[in-house]
Amino acid sequence: MARLPLLRAFLLSAVLQCLYASAVDAEEAALDIDIAHTSIEDLINIEVTTVLRRGEPYFRSPAAVSVLTGEQIRRSGALTVPEALRLLPGVSVSRIDANKWAVSIRGFNSRTVSKLLVLVDGRSVYNQLFAGVFWEAQDVLLDDVDRIEVIRGPGGSLWGANAVNGVINIITKTAQDTQGGLFSGGGGNEEHGFAHARYGWQPSEQWAIRTYAKYLNRDEGYLHDREEHDRYEIFRSGFRADRTAEEQQSTLLGEFYFGDAGEPFNDGGQEVGLSGGSLLGRLQWTTEKAASELQAYYDYYRYDSRALVEDRHTFDVELDRRWQYLPNHSLYWALNYRITTDDILPGPVIAVVPRARTDNRVTTSLQEEWAIVPERLSLIVGTKLGYNDYTGIEVQPNVRIAYTPSDRHTFWGAISRAIRAPSRLEDDIIVPDTLQGNKDFHSEELLAYELGYRARLWEEVSFEIASFVYDQENLVSIDEGKVGNNIHGDAYGGEIAVNYVPTPWLRFNGSYSYVQLDLKLDPDGADRAQVVRQDEADPEHQFVLQTSIDFAENWELDVGARYVDRLSSRDVPSYTAAHFHLAWDVSRQLQVSLVGENLLDAHHFEQSGGLATQVERSLYARLRWRY
User: Fold this and answer.
1) Residue extents of the structural domains in the chain
2) What's the CA gap between 235 and 132, in Å, rounded?
3) Reduced to 3 states, what is the DSSP secondary structure of residue 74?
4) This model's pTM is above 0.90
5) Burial, 266: exposed, middle or buried (Cβ in 10 Å; 0-12, 13-18, 19+)?
6) What is the chain's mean pLDDT, rounded?
7) Higher-confidence residue: 50 or 341?
8) Residue 506 backbone zone (phi > 0: left; psi -120 to 50: alpha; other: beta)
9) CA–CA gap between residue 554 and residue 448 (Å, rounded)
10) pLDDT tens-digit profile of 143-174?
11) CATH 2.40.240.10 assigned to 5-626
């Protein structure tokens, strides 16, 4: 980590620049914290955009969707996106070691989970190498997050391949909403040091800009019989610029990052270098009956380890348009093209042949929305038609219906087909005498049936239940040393979430999630152990409870607990974890807080395997200064 001490100097420089730039107006600044809790009325009217790719009140959404606001994230004390996602129903989050995470929705949880699409401001962070997400590289600045929208269930008809079991859409605040300066930093026994600085300004009436720098240093996990080697240190910096005119909005975002995510290797350890960056531009324009958007981004990623080295460049461009062609009918269409090129240097064990490859993907979406009875009964029918270099043409249709008989009740249902396209490793991996890729590997397929109900039972209570039944085909298998598609099966379960806000200063949130997989080996399959590993890789039962209290005039307390059922195939016992966040607003500009995580035991496993370490009890202090 010879280069990483430079991060401290870089971050200090950024902080000093922000302090200097904002000194003239420091006295007028105030914390951008809404101390009062969101009311039930506000909660059910939160606008979500991920379900239909347009604004829609959460209460009427025809999907199992959850929203985590920026205020909820701040009050949770979370430092990373996976930690924040623990608050949501139906999301399985396991920390593998000090820097690696397994995040899934409705089954198949592992570090290389491949049935979940993750977006950051419209940019997919899916990696073609294994069709998943390297969460250790997604160190998003949480203070800039406006909300995280999570769809539990398929979203392939709008979002394409890999939006099979769910979509996580991380949406950051506009530059207009992050004016002035912000510094936040602290440390503790596990989080050795973390800090970020942000400054926003408006060079003109139409333009707003923000820049930021972020640093995180986390200690190793715990394992009694060997050295852990899993320290985590990462730096990120970037900017956002927004221009707002009467009928047009423009956005430009860019960032770069680098760091080390250590892990065991053979009889010792290795530092895994993470680096990359992205640049995204978006133009939105509206007319009386139509709204259009053109977006393009470039993303670079480098993964540098002794096992293999991956360099990947991705370019993506999309044009979409929503047109209200009749009073109660609107049509959405989109055209997307993505090209990704890689260069994968083999290690002592793993090779990918050919070493360099370029893959193309072209998709088009078409979706009709019919408001049969405006704001009461709606029908959505659509499909995504796509081509990829691995399996050719794929079709992902979708039918959804939502019925809101009154402002207190919404019923919805959906039937969807989604696919998970092959990854580079499944096609081209070679591990001598152990594993070989398959050029004839097919897309994994899902046919999903979903039903849901939301209710505002009283003025203080809202309630949601969602259920699902999945029929899954062509699931990945390992058959006599070759990648195959010889597992199929069913999955079923659901989620229940309750919000209770008896007073503006007291709030209770709770959820329960259940998932059951029943997988079987095809007649041509050979690896029954793989069926067991996937079948029992997720907790059947999860409970999450959260209480938020505002007391005195400038104190707030958040206390929560979660129960996670055992992972049978991974020999991980069930556990209960508790956390708290205590904050004091010293002034309008300054807040200090204390956060405790995993309070009920000194350490515990959340995953198992050669890379897994135990998660330890953590306490850290934090200072947040708005100027």
Assistant:
1) 5-626
2) 22
3) helix
4) yes
5) exposed
6) 88
7) 341
8) beta
9) 47
10) 999 999 999 999 877 887 788 999 999 999 99
11) no
